[in-house]
Amino acid sequence: MQAWQVHRHGEPAEVMRLEEVEKPRPGEGQLLLKVRAANINFPDALLCRGQYQVRPPLPFTPGLEICGETEDGRRVVAGPALPRGGLAEYVVADEAAVLPAPESLDDAEAAALHIGYQTGWFGLHRRAALRPGETLLVHAAAGGVGSAAVQLGSAAGARVIGVVGGRDKARTARELGCDLVVDRRADDVVAAVTEATGGRGADVIYDPVGGDAYAQSAKCVAFEGRIVVVGFASGVIPTPALNHALVKNYSVLGLHWGLYRHRDPAAVLDCHEKLTELAAKGEIKPLISGRFAMKDAPDAVQRVADGVTTGRVVVLPEGV
Fold this sequence. Notes:
The protein is 34% helix and 26% strand. It has helices at residues 12-15, 42-49, 107-111, 115-127, 144-155, 167-176, 189-196, 212-220, 242-248, 258-263, 265-280, 297-306, and strands spanning 2-6, 16-20, 30-39, 65-70, 75-78, 90-94, 99-100, 135-139, 159-164, 180-183, 202-207, 221-229, 251-254, 288-293, 312-316.
């Protein structure tokens, strides 16, 4: 079968090679899945660069989440077991972590529902306890992780403010459901949020960016607000001033969703059921901005690495 392999670390477009490899064999408690769609996440780029918290042995295949088909014909979503990720024709995955694909979504959309939306759900509901009527500020609101948080925040009854970089991404954020969009390239983020909230600030802030975005968050978070840290797409890991959190009375919450798969798998299943219900109602729907053929997978991963995409990009092994 064909699979994209990384033999050395570097930029995805430079180090990914399409090769013929042996078809994987499922072990005990695993399933063989035919890949119908592989969603690209920013961690796939970090894996190629050797900068992710997990460093699989070389060579490895990127691709952290897929929509696949079981040998008995069921359509499912899953996270393949590294080092043999989803940018391949076939993968194996732990049977206990394989979930039914929502009928309301096509293959590309189903592949994009898992990690980003699970992260958003756990971040907003389990960690931050977002309440209806509260103000939610989402950084990188037009991106893959941010777009999920925007939709989930709207579905929860929050007023959503999205921060983006550029006019095209601002338009996308409005289409996703943001009540207010702030273009960080043209606007003063802190001033805009302060004005929009009557000086109160945002109750919950969802930050997959870090760096300057976190610094802005600390300046415009509300009394008893919650800043949810989910990643550092900027490449800069902030160092929070805890005296500032004390004086202003807000919380900084970390979220590594992958831990729930090991420590509380029942919560992951419950979350998937809730996401499936929201998708069936049309309240959430992954924005797929690019559908790539298998031969163009390096371009898809590189575009995500470069931060030039909106929503999600997905690789379809059998063609677009």
